[in-house]
Description:
By secondary structure, the protein is mainly alpha-helical. The protein contains 17 helices and no strands. Helix 1 runs antiparallel to helix 2 (31-56), helix 2 crosses helix 6 (110-132) and helix 2 packs antiparallel against helix 9.
Amino acid sequence: MFKKILGTGAARVVNVLTQLATLIMGTKFLGAAEWGKAFIAQTDVTFLLIGIELVAGSGLVYFTPRKKLSTLMTVSYGWIAFVMLVYMLLFNVLHFFPKFYHTIVPEGYGRLVLLMAFVYSFHGFNLNHFLGKEKITTYNWLFLIQILTQVTTMAILIFAMNIRTAKALLYSQLCGYTLAMLIGWILLFPGLKREGREPLKDNLKEMLHYGAFLQLSTLVSTLNKRLSLYLLRVNCDERQIGVYASGTQVTEGVNIVGQSIGLVAFSALSNTEKAQRASQLTLRFMKLSILLTFTALLVICLLPTSFFEWLFSGEFGDIRSVILLMAPGVVFFSAHTVLANYFSGTGQPKYNLYASLISLSITLIAAFLLIPWLGIRGAAITTSLTYLALFVYQWVVFRKQTGCRFGQLVPSREDWEWLRTEIKGLI
Length: 427
């Protein structure tokens, strides 16, 4: 178990390093305005993926041990084609409302956004399948191929081809998705041999039912994280959005801890039927996630403003204030990530949806009050309040189901013994 966490964590550390390299290249050679535009386009892709992942998303992790690959692939690929057709029609309709359309999608980036969502859908299917099979090493290698291809391509686009717009980042991401998708297919297709057919209609209905709660939760959660961005677009210029985006990326980079632990927990919980073991694993993973996230954030928060100005350029002097205000929320988010995977892995995604709806109400109130008043600082405070609300609701439900007490979040002797045993097993 601990080897899987470390393997996933190592892949995420490489991701953070490549994202840092990407961030430095983007801020220094593209500028704050183009960087802000790229962040908006990335957010658009994230929203488009939510509709696709109703069927072809992380719910596959739950269904992979329970259904045939041929069934999952047929249902998911058909759904991807259908949803992408709907998106293409929607984008064509929005062209008749250019002011609204270009507030959401940067001008000239619509087709690229659609293509990125389409390619990532198949890459995401491959990742979720291998995660559901508990093939964490394969998952990590595909993830590494994606991010390393991305950062290499971006360097080529900026320094060799002299592309100094938001497209330098987006094209590089598209290249990373494409190569990882192709390699994933090579590994995946042999698993189709000797498989019979299952009723597609019933499976589609079941996957939609499960995915509806999961993706509605993701939609609301994404609104919680990114609604502030669209409000900033109305109240601030693209340069300020670029600064906020950079601060968000730095703090979200710390989330590799919770994400790594949460992914392994999701895979393990999806393959266990024992409630007591599920709650015990969740508690231990959550304590480990909080401790490591807090430590990483403490180091980042102690860095002076001059360091960020040197690293990213003078345009990004306000980034430290964004990081400081978001830091408390990120600690709560690390705990939320583990709890969210507990509910998804035990077949209870509805509680993630309810948590996201509650936190969305906090987001709406805080964002509309604070962003017009405090700008990017108001957006950072809104994020922290949102993450706090997510954790509080999920902890209340988890406590009610398992009987756990808040004091159990403090690491015990048994936890340290477990950790020491896992570390010894690596030597």
